[in-house]
Amino acid sequence: MSRRILSVAAALALALAADAADAQAKKPAPPPAKAAGPGQACIDCHEQTSPSIVSDWRLSRHSAMDVDCISCHGDGHRTKDDFAKAKLPTPDTCAQCHEAQVAQFKRGKHAWSWAAVKAMPTFHYQPVAIREGLKGCGGCHKLGLKSEQETKELRETSGGYGVASCDACHTRHLFSKAEARRPEACQTCHMGFDHPQWEMYSGSKHGVRNALKSQKAIPETSAAPTCQTCHMQEGNHEVRTAWGFLAVRLPMPEGDPQWTADRATILQGLGVLDPQGKPTGRLEVVKAADVARLTQEAFDAERTKMVKTCTQCHSQGFARKQLEQSDGLIRDADHLMAEAIRTVAGLYQDGVLAKPKEYAYPFPDLLTFHDAPTPVEQTLFVMFLEHRMRAFQGAFHANPDYANWYGWSEMRRDLVEIKAMAEDMRRVAKVKPGAPAKKPAPKK
């Protein structure tokens, strides 16, 4: 019996040894060692000074394709004292290999994010740390294309950070496509006060299913749309939407005079139309920054792409109906917004509230943001940029709570507050709507 056990054990040992030898034979041979390239000196130094940079680069596809430090940063930086000579990559640097993606990016809204934020009147009043120091608006809007002079100034102010664009999603120095395909890659910028898309998405059924799939609670093949599924169809780097950022567009709606009037009021509050309804110089800024669709054809092209995306999981009838209902919420939100704008504009026109001298037209400037000078104007700003944005964005991102309680409901409350404040101000000034305030009698 003991000899039999020993024989079986010996046979098993031989079989395991044969399997191990077979597995070793099938294991691919390690790649041959590469000759040290021109960037090897950079690698040797930065492995000591900033090892995680080198570690990420080694994990990237770039390292396997001989794309080294010099390929992107040039060879000007050679010592610890001349670090300023290291070039910071721009989209054009990436275009040497990724021409199609960079061309798409340059046509899209992200490429104009720096121009868009600079177009905001009071952006220039913010602390330098928030602007060029990239601790606030500039931290995300740095993504946009910049002139050579702006690039130089940004580098000096921000300590050398924030010049490139592609690395906002493909974080340096790994530059991972898998990372950029994850919805979390969008979270840093698309969250918070005026654009909480991350919060809306992650709490929606789409986001919940994506999280469950990531946790392997549902099968890997389950339908779970990400931000990129809807906004980067087939990997397109333009990242456009039908309504644009502020949900105002041209041409005016046909057959709906109320919405036409309301949208005109909002455009006047944005300074895009003058009191007579004619385009102003700001319209050219809106065109340049690509923050709105200004033709029916442009809107229809983006809407068609979205319907096609939705029908990967839903029927076309269902998809179109959901999008149309979200359009309808914009119409209803615009009616509340326009009434609030007209209320504040009426205070200017009747002399109850002093119109800031920097406002070109007798309308509150919705783009002054937190620099609005009085509580009633501050409430109007919050109504527009926080609550109206949440109402329509919540609808399109399939998040009922944002659309209703954080959006529509708050707009209703804002309007009540604005009208109550206006009434109090008129009572103090003893001016009824449409009646100019009495000028004080001259002193004797």
Automatic annotation (TrEMBL):
The keyword Signal applies. CDD domains: Cytochrom_C3. Transmembrane segments: none annotated. Keywords: Signal. The keyword Protein biosynthesis does not apply. InterPro entries: Multihaem_cyt_sf, Multiheme_Cytochr_ET. Residues 1-20 form the signal peptide. Pfam families: Multi-haem_cyto (PF13447). PANTHER family: CYTOCHROME C-TYPE PROTEIN NRFB, DISSIMILATORY SULFITE REDUCTASE SIRA. This is Cytochrome C.
